[in-house]
Amino acid sequence: MAYPVEPNNTFIAWFIFYCSAVYMCIVGAVVKLIKGC
Amino acid sequence: MTTAGWLIFTFVVTLAFYLFFGSWLGRYTKSLEDYYVAGRKMPALVIAATFMASWTSAAGLSGVAGCGWNWGLSGALWFYGSYFGVAIILIWVALPMRRGMFLTATDFFEERFGGSSRLRTVAVITMVFGMAAYYVGQIVAMGRIMELIVNIPYAYVVWSIVGILAIYIFFSGMMGVAITDVVMFATILLVAVAFPVMFYKYGGWNGLFHTLPQIKPGIWRLSGTGGSLGPNLHYWIGAALAYLALTTTSPHLLSRAFTAKDERSLIHGLTWGFIALAIVLPLWFTAVVFVNMDVSSLGGVIKKVDHVVPYMMNNILPVWLSCIILAGIAAAGISTANVIITVLSQAVVRDIWQKLWHKGGKDIPDEKVFKYTRIWVLILSAVLGFIATVIPARSAFIIAWGAAVFAMTYLPVVMIGLYWDRVTEKAAFWGMVTGLILFLGLSTAALDKAVAQALYLSPTLWATLYSFVFIFVASYLTKKSPEEVAAWEKMKAQMFPKEKVYGTVKDYWSLGVGATVFTIFLVWFVGRMIIS
Fold first, then answer.
1. pTM here?
2. CB nearest to A28's CB, from B90, B221, B508
3. In sequence order, what are the residues at sequence separation of 6 or more whose Cβ sits closer than 8 angstroms to the Cβ of residue B351?
4. ipTM
5. I need a labelling partner for B8 at 20 to 30 A (CA). Which of B54, B226, B481, B490 fits?
6. How far apart are CA B263 and CA B500, in angstroms?
7. A33 CB near a chain B CB, below 8 Å?
């Protein structure tokens, strides 16, 4: 079966960008606790 | 019993549970602080649940998931522009706000600017209209969804939800909101169970990344099917910004920070709640995207995107799972509405009656404020419930309007007010007022398609941009009064104290585990897409 070629790499990039909000939150929390909040 | 019978049974049991459990919690609500800010003693778990459950709405779980079915996962996730808002509130807003020891969010506006009652007035007016619109939007959305799913007449659904909320919040206030939100958040997370069920039913990864794009080309493109997100990009950015502002500074979410036991509970609560939801929502949306395997076009058995989730529950999922999802959607809606009605009644009694009408009202005893707030929960519920039953507008429009008013008012004043010493009361006041007027004018004018096109960016974006610029420029042109300077010095010392709270090894461990869990999810989900 021939699969249609999906340009899904744009989606992946976007999805990772979106999920980076979670990392921003975790890193923010760690930095706050290290530097003293 | 039929599927419909089980669903109605679940709906009734869910509501009855919240009614009795919520009212029972009233026994722990003894003081005004209990009723307004849950006694300021909520641990991390409760903070996670109450913030995230209030943040997730019924329309989000149902209508937005339907958008994902039609336009692809990016279509669904766009609505969650507030993702970054959670990080912003955690890093910059929640901690100083908690240290301010406010009872309501509008306290900040008055106290920050040396007892400016006109700033409190405009903050309260914005809040009452924004939150009332948001409440009505939630109730309308819930009524429509439940009408579709359980086939109970719209008005019955509206009045049963409004009534149950009014009764249990009358008894337990913010304490009841926070604790019942824990149950609701757990129920919301359970909707993710739909993912494995749909996944195995429709051919796993192969079905998701190969068969689905054949049925619906573009489902995994950034621009979605037919590139429909492309031309409207500015609209999506405007909506994302509105929700970001709502997440960062809206009173119903900001007030979650006031309830925290201590600073570390607040940090952990926000982070862990966010991680949980950021895993569950894409799974749930993807489960709904799978419905395309069964029905892939609008117009037949699925007439609107709002009908996708009800269709899935009635025709695809096993009954037990449909009941779980119904409970999850109900929990998402109720947990948003319960806190809004609480902060609205607080706004009427404390902000308008005590602080503005009685000019501070220091001689009014707490018991009186407590009693009146309870009565206003009932009055507001009756009024807004009535509006919800008669309003003709589409719920998404009402919610979007209610969410948007915070973007050009609360967002700039809170952010600039916290981090820029130079800002003046005059600039903040006139920035909020003119920003709001500009937004109302532009959004009314933009109902005309030609005007909307000429604007290019959404009214929310224009008005927010204007507000920020105005407040900066006007602060340079005006001077602060001595009261303002003194008030901010006092508040700043309290919000940004010299003695700091540092994390312990346990804190870093648990946050590290959080980061790992999320990374595994991301690699698993996106990695499979790359391999496919």
1. 0.91
2. B90
3. B104, B106, B120, B124
4. 0.89
5. B54
6. 10
7. yes
Contacts of A22 in chain B (CB under 8 A): 83, 87, 274-275, 278, 518
* Cα B280 to Cα B261: distance, rounded to the nearest angstrom: 27
User: Within a 10 A sphere around the Cβ of B355, how many other Cβ atoms?
Assistant: 24
A14 and B222 within 8 Å at the Cβ level: the answer is: yes
Contact B245, B337 (CB under 8 A): no
Average pLDDT rounded to a whole number, residues B252-260: 92
The reply to whether residue A25 touches residue B73, judged by beta carbons under 8 angstroms, is no
CA B236 to chain centre: 17
Query: Would you give the end-to-end CA distance of chain B in angstroms?
Result: 42
Give the lowest-confidence range in B7-21, B176-190, B333-347, B448-462: B448-462
Token code pair at residue B346: 């607080």
- Phi, psi at B232, each rounded to 5°: -100, 20
- Angstroms from B123 CA to nearest CA on chain A: 28
What are the structure tokens assigned to A15, written together? 């999805």
Does B86 sit within 8 Å of A33, measured CB to CB?
A: no
Tokens of B304: 């609107």
pLDDT in tens, B72-109: 887 777 666 678 889 999 999 999 999 999 999 999 99
Q: Report whether B212 contacts B72 (CB < 8 A).
A: no
A&B contacts, CB < 8 Å = 110
CA nearest neighbour of B58 among B162, B250, B188: B188
Radius of gyration for the alpha carbons in chain B, expressed in angstroms and rounded: 23
**Secondary element (H or E) of residue B188:** helix B154-189
Q: What is the pLDDT of residues B295-306, one digit of tens each?
A: 988 888 898 888
Distance CA B359, CA B381 (A): 27
Contact list, B500 vs chain A (CB under 8 Å): 35-37
CB-CB under 8 Å, B502 with A8 = no
Compare CB distances from A33 to B86, B502, B530 and report the shortest one's residue.
B502
Please name the member of B86, B507, B530 whose beta carbon is closest to the beta carbon of A12.
B530
Please list, residue by residue across B257-280, b when 16 or more beta carbons sit within 10 angstroms of its beta carbon and e when fewer do. Answer: bbbbbebbbbbbbbbbbbbbbbbb
CB contact under 8 A, B518 and A26: yes
Of A3, A16, A30, the CB nearest to B508: A30
